[in-house]
Amino acid sequence: MKFSLVVLALAMLAAPAVPRPARAAPHLRWDACYGESAARVDKTFACDTNVGFDALILSLTCSEHLENVLGFEGTLEVVPGGSSLPSWWNFLSVARQPAIVFDREQDAAWTRCNDFFGGGTSVFVGGMAPTASSPNRARLRFAAAVPNFAPVAVGPEMGELYLLRLRLLHRGAGGAGAGVDCPSPAGLVLQDVRIDRPLGVGDWDDVAGTGLDTDYWVTWQGGSPPDGVNPASSKSRTWGQVKALYR
Q1: 9 vs 166 pLDDT, higher one
Q2: What is the pTM of this model?
Q3: I need a labelling partner for 81 at 20 to 30 A (CA). Which of 65, 67, 146, 174 fits?
């Protein structure tokens, strides 16, 4: 499985990558897809139990039709207040293990959100990466791709497209194993999202928000919207960076 993902990463790599106009808009909400009535911008939690989780839902809306889509990849950044990263957001700490789970489970009750892969199977990976230049932030990377290079088509006619779910587990919040600063307010923002296509077809297409767009960020415990972040920016990938994403 890891080998096939690395091969797919090679196929999607464009050298050099040239930014192009965004062809889709990203969405980030708690509990449900952006267009669903159950979607929330802010999430509060009493921090009194280790059981359960809160769900972040990532989705996008295409502005034009795209053929030969292999998958998507991106970065979610957690931006708490203060000069250091609170223990609640340190997903690698012992007290918070396991802290996060990525998956692509979709709620059957959603009526306005369609699967990015059209209900087909997909290969998915995700994980945490350090943010050396900002010690008070946590960065999460994710990617999903169709298996066996069986591309799909996406477009505005499909409406809002569900990408993935990130489960923020309550581990360490209360009861046995407590001790982390769960109430720590924060903003969470989609920092970088790309739709990947084969070399020669388009290579990749940015998914971009604007500085005034609230669609691609949420808050935790009444935290402030992320500040000083360049949401959904285009980024060139070196081969080393692409390999790191798929480990």
Answers
A1: 166
A2: 0.79
A3: 174
